[in-house]
TrEMBL record:
GO terms for cellular component: glutamate-cysteine ligase complex. Keywords: ATP-binding, Glutathione biosynthesis, Ligase, Nucleotide-binding. One of its GO terms (molecular function) is ATP binding. It catalyses: L-cysteine + L-glutamate + ATP = gamma-L-glutamyl-L-cysteine + ADP + phosphate + H(+). GO terms for biological process: glutathione biosynthetic process. The lineage of its organism: Eukaryota, Metazoa, Ecdysozoa, Arthropoda, Hexapoda. Its EC number is 6.3.2.2. This is Glutamate--cysteine ligase. Transmembrane segments: none annotated. Belongs to the glutamate--cysteine ligase type 3 family. Gene3D superfamilies: 1.10.8.960, 3.30.590.50. Pathway: Sulfur metabolism; glutathione biosynthesis; glutathione from L-cysteine and L-glutamate: step 1/2.
Length: 636
């Protein structure tokens, strides 16, 4: 997220009154952006990653690990370099939702030469080191998707207590002090989302049922009617937005290429979610899910009872199926249109305005659909804007539609082009793994564009995959809808119909089949070539220096092994660690002691002090380097 300008947040009541103002001007602003920039072309591939970190504090004498609420303090120092030298810093640092989180990106996006793949991991490593220099004794910057004991008693340093009856969060478990206090946006979102919804957000995660697991898992269901007895109940935005992820943004050469990338990467979102699964433990319990996705989705679900279909519509206009954090609802490229098989809600008036201003159906429906969400955060300084120049109202709604993919128009008056963001991945423990995932996905975009591959499947199938991807051990146990025929443009005669004209529901057909992550990534003889073999054949035709070649091959080998199940996903590694811990009581409980041992182990693996072939394979090293040698500047 861009640097946050400070300001004065409006109360929920004031914000609510201005919802249609934001909608009206946000749409106008998009129309103006579109008119100015629709013809923009000739941009080259640029791309960058975003990594979120948790500041962990180890209390060795007590054998406990906690989150350290020092993000504000650290960011003040980290941002100093950027303020002094905005164009030459190696890393950019941003606040995130929680007071124990920071986000880092490369100082400048990477460019379109293969040699850039060889600097990614080094940048990640140096980034981690730069921030780590500000750590206090026994603190560690960790790339954990979820902090296992988030919301357990005394999980923060300094100690803080939840305040169920007052403050912003009003959670049974998550203290206000754990929300990033350096900018009002975050607490404002917490409050407004709860107020708009009319009650606490509620997430019920099925507990992993072991031999001695106690049901009910705790007393939550006695206190809150939303809590289910056999689930781990979470009641605060922090349980979701306090998780960390790995994101990627790509610049396309023009708007049409951006639409293609947006669409083609969509079916890969669930696959990469299952692949990167890293968060099986929540609020001190092993759960039956491996990923953060639905938790974040629930943690910002601001839909009212009417919108959730629990009451007849009176004040609200729509029953809305998904939270504002979820998988995308529609494709944007002409090729994708036939696969838009779920109803797309929007205000007819908004859609009309967009259409009347020359915006085609697919884009108009996408933008109008984003605007079915009301603003949940508005600052008094930003109410009145010049729609010709400002884009804050558009960005207000765009940046609070947290979906698997994001279609990003160029910022006004900048050198940046049309971009798409790939948002499903969970963050991995080591820079090696994160760099491998990043390079894999960027290479896929090159393969898709060069070979004009077609991964499209009905959007309803992508939704189904997103749910399956989060199940325990999905990588090994689940099958996913995936397109078999990726070299043709053949599409179903009608939305939601498969190539044989039957309804695309459970049956496989020539076009789409059910595959494991292994089959998708490594291939299935006679049926599907596999993403890695496709990347390798693309790379065969490329001129690349020996070091970069070696690094890419190491990354691809690692991806292959993880996809095949030869090595663990982060989630299954964590599960195994817990269930094999000598003090685990087969009761799904991840005690302070187990948490401490787990985090110590993950820290040692990250620091290279402990080898861990079962997570990383035997050769998880690359030839990554800090800079690209001068001679290697040919574009791909
Ligand atoms: P967000 O929309 O998530 O707030 P940012 O605008 O902060 O994203 O940028 C996120 C990522 O985009 C970073 O990794 C950054 O390196 C990358 N990035 C910056 N400029 C470009 C560009 N012109 N093209 C592609 N990626 C870019
Ligand atoms: Mg982002
Ligand atoms: Mg972020």
């Amino acid at each position: 997220m861009g640097l946050l300008t400070e300001g004065t947040p409006l109360s929920w009541e004031e914000t609510k009154k201005l919802a249609s103002h934001v909608r009206e001007h946000g749409i106008k602003q998009f129309i103006n952006i579109y008119k100015k920039l629709k013809e923009r072309k000739g941009d080259v591939l640029k791309w960058g990653d975003e990594i979120e970190y948790i500041i962990v504090k180890f209390e060795h004498e007590k054998q406990e690990a906690k989150v350290s609420l020092r993000a504000v303090e650290m960011l003040e120092v980290l941002n100093e370099a950027e303020i002094q030298n905005p164009n030459t810093v190696k890393f950019l640092w941003r606040p995130e939702f929680a007071a124990y989180m920071i986000e880092g990106t490369p100082g400048k996006p990477y460019g379109g030469t293969l040699a850039h793949f060889n600097v990614v991991e080094s940048n990640m490593r140096n980034r981690r080191e730069e921030a780590s220099e500000l750590l206090k004794e026994n603190e560690c910057l960790m790339t954990l998707t979820s902090f296992p004991r988030l919301g357990c008693p005394n999980f923060t340093v300094p100690p803080s207590q939840p305040t169920p009856n007052e403050g912003g969060t009003k959670s049974l478990f998550f203290p206000d002090a754990a929300v990033f206090p350096g900018h009002p946006r975050f607490m404002n979102l917490v409050r407004n989302i709860r107020k708009r919804r009319g009650e606490h957000v509620a997430i019920n995660l099925p507990v992993f049922r072991d031999k001695n697991t106690k049901i009910p898992v705790d007393d939550s269901h006695r206190i809150r009617k939303a809590a289910l007895p056999d689930c781990v109940y979470l009641d605060a935005m922090g349980f979701g937005m306090g998780c960390c992820c790995l994101q990627l943004t790509f610049q396309a050469c023009n708007i049409d290429e951006a639409r293609i990338l947006y669409d083609q990467l969509t079916p890969l979102c669930p696959i990469m979610l299952a692949f990167s699964a890293a968060s099986p433990i929540h609020r001190g319990f092993l759960t039956d899910i491996d990923c953060r996705w639905n938790i974040i989705s629930g943690s910002v679900d601001c839909r009212t009872e009417e919108e959730r279909g629990l009451k007849p519509l009176k004040e609200n206009k729509f029953v809305i199926k998904k939270s504002r954090y979820d998988s995308i609802d529609s494709y944007l490229s002409p090729q994708g249109e036939k696969y838009n098989d779920i109803p797309i809600l929007y205000n007819e008036e908004d859609y009309r305005k967009l259409r009347d201003n020359g915006i085609d159906h697919l884009l108009a429906q996408h933008i109008a659909h984003l605007f079915i969400r009301d603003t949940v955060s508005l600052f008094s300084e930003k109410i009145n804007q010049n729609d010709e120049e400002d884009t804050d109202h558009f960005e207000n709604i765009q940046s609070t539609n947290w979906q698997t993919m994001r279609f990003k128009p160029p910022p006004p008056h900048s050198t940046i082009g049309w971009r798409v963001e790939f948002r499903p991945c969970e963050v991995q423990v080591t820079d090696f793994e994160n760099a491998a995932i990043v390079c894999f996905v960027v290479l896929l975009t090159r393969v898709i564009l060069s070979y004009q591959l077609n991964f499209l499947i009905p959007i309803s199938k992508v939704d189904e995959n997103i749910q399956n991807a989060q199940k325990r051990n999905a990588l090994k146990d689940q099958k996913f809808w995936f397109r078999k025929d990726i070299t043709t443009d053949v599409s179903p005669p009608e939305a939601n119909q498969c190539c044989k004209g039957t309804k695309c529901e459970t049956t496989e057909c020539d076009l789409i089949g059910l595959m494991t992550v292994n089959e998708i990534i490594n291939g299935k003889q006679g049926e599907f070539p596999g993403l890695i073999p496709l990347i390798n054949s693309y790379l065969n035709g490329m001129d690349v220096d020996a070091d970069t070649h070696c690094t890419i091959q190491q990354y691809l080998k690692f991806i292959q092994k993880r996809a095949s199940g030869e090595i663990h996903t982060t989630a299954s590694f964590i599960r195994d660690f817990v269930t094999n811990h000598p003090n685990y009581k087969q009761d799904s409980v991840v005690s302070d002691e187990i948490n401490y041992d787990l985090l110590t182990t993950l820290k040692d693996i990250e620091h290279g002090e402990k080898s861990c072939p079962e997570l990383l394979g035997y050769s998880a090293t690359s030839k990554t380097r800090e800079n690209i040698p001068h001679a290697l500047k040919n574009d791909f």
